[in-house]
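Notes continue from the previous slide.

Worked example: a multi-chain complex. Inputs as given:
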Amino acid sequence: MKRLLFDRVFEGAGEMYRIAEENLKQAVAELGGSAPLVMPNSAYFLANHYTYLAKKITTLGELEDSLPEIRAWILREQRLENAFKAGFGAFLAAEVIEACKYARSGEPYEQPFHGHLSDAEVRELGVPLVTGDLPGFVVIIGPAPSDREAAELIKGYQSRAIFVFLIGGIIDQAVRMNIGMGFPVRIVPVGPDIWSVTHIISFVNRAAMIFGNVQPGDREEFDHYTFHRIRAFVNAFSPVADIVVACGGGAIAMGFPVITNDTTDTWPVPKSLIIQEDTASFIETSLEARDIKIKVTNINIPAAFSTAFEGEIIRRNDMQIDIDGSRLDCFEWVRGREPGDITDHAIELVGPDIDAFEAGSRVALGVIVDVAGKNMHSDFESVFERKIHHFLNCIEGVMHTGQRDMIRIRVSRAAFEAGFRAKHFGETLYAKMKDEYSSVIDKCQVTIYTIPEQLKTLRAGANTAYEARDARLLSLTDESVGVFYNCILCQSFSPAHVCVVTPERLGLCGAVSWLDAKATNELDPNGPCQVVTKERIIDERLGIWEDVNEAVSQASHGSLQQVTLYSIMQDPMTSCGCFECICGIEPMTNGVVIVNREHTGMTPLGMTFSEMASMTGGGVQTPGFMGHGKQFISSRKFMKAEGGPARIVWMPRALKDLVAKKLNHSAKELYGVDDFTAMIADETVTEEVETLAVFLTERGHPVLNLEPLM
Ligand code: SF4
Ligand code: ZN
């Protein structure tokens, strides 16, 4: 006779608890109760303890204190609410087990296992989740009946752009089947044991705190958020042990259905626990259960196309050709044309094809995409052109970086052997441009050039066009345009957040400029970007407009009443969590420290990016801290109310190099200072505030002449 599901949840949770207790006892005996507990690159302590118990655990001893509480969560009583609670208890116990590993060694996991996910990784998923590029997550608990079935399932999800987490024996199967894994390709082998599931739950809970501003301890809100905003589900292969069932109970309570082929000792629960004996139908059943619809564009190329391949890296040894704009004449260029001048779907190659070059060689290549349509406007050229990176990167076996005449494209040997040739760049660009911009692009033709002499002239022509565009962009200021735009794309994830996008202040994700927002609005008038008028100014210095406030209040459903566009101290703009950078005030030097997402080290604020980010997200205003795009740093409107970019006292080296040219230009214009970035400290100078102050004085940094910030 089948056992009741509740019984199995309580059994499993009890088992997890006993393992946790045992592990913790050993760890305390070895390391002592005061041994520190830190999860790498996270500002959320043990995130599940923080979520469910509102406890900031920092030592093994504190973890011991929470054991009785966990125990109380898994007490057996035949009520649904308690079974769910026992599921969460299992997650907490699992966190205890994993935390002990991290207490013993900062990096307990070795290849291929990933273990804990960093805060930066949580945030990185924010953008694709809101844009729908990432339709959902699956957690696969294995092993599958055979290696082949394991590979088919994983690949099947990957080709549908579903993010895949793997736990247990399926990881060995994936390794045997040579599946490329890792965070960038969206297949993460978490750990060999079921308790590694705690890292995924921690990941989800941090997303709720970061993007949804859900407060620690508010379990109902967490469940609400995960149910409505995170489209996740579980695939568990037979035989499913009680300890896995316990975790399944927790997953179901979070709104994540469990699909399994285990028929022996499992009862189905409508919409939540679904028995699917045919593992080949797991994908279909799962997507249906979580109501995920996958949009597919058919592109006529001999390679797979999916956002899952965006992070794919093609190494030197695996490449067929290397199109290298840093050494040869290469470019990509979108031109608006008159409809009569171009032929729709004409794809032409001028010069030798990929197979004419020796394997592994460096090749010069240029692409011109001509588009026409009655709503086409020259301002859209750069918007479409920047999408080339995304479109070509989604081809399996193609890696694209850079833009304009500084591009690099690699085609893998595998793609080449499958028949991939130059015209397939054209097919891809044609299909995606027409698909995504159907309201503007009526006709599209693509020409690809590979003759070096010809490329030289064409590249010069492209450069003239880029320069003209840049000049137009520079002439766009907040004062010179009639309207701003808002962007609420991130509300699907961060319900109270609104970005106001102006010519001199792009969206904090760095992906939405004023021109992008304008294009988005014209392409889809009911879409995420709406016109914001700016007729009734209240305060020019701070950047307050009555009409902007009204728009923000409406778009945030009343949760925001006033924003300033140019101040970090007074009613600053909110952050959703996908910011490229954060700046935070540094009181001793009277300046601000900026740190970008990629920088994992310490800052003079005594906080890492993660720690600063934990104070900044969730769609709430946090004076003194602000998320922003990289390009905003050199804007004349950056903290204009507080004195502008002259407040910047520290930035990571790489970020400084990236923005140096424009920032130095602005500083020269604003303050008459030469080589401003040389006055800004970085991690090679110091990470301490005392030495920072000395450095600034030595260099005569302009912040020394500014009024106190507070
Ligand atoms: Fe999200 Fe703002 Fe970027 Fe829009 S502009 S996608 S709301 S971060
Ligand atoms: Zn966002």
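Summary box: The first strand starts at residue 137 and ends at 142. Residues 12 and 241 are 8 Å apart (CA to CA).
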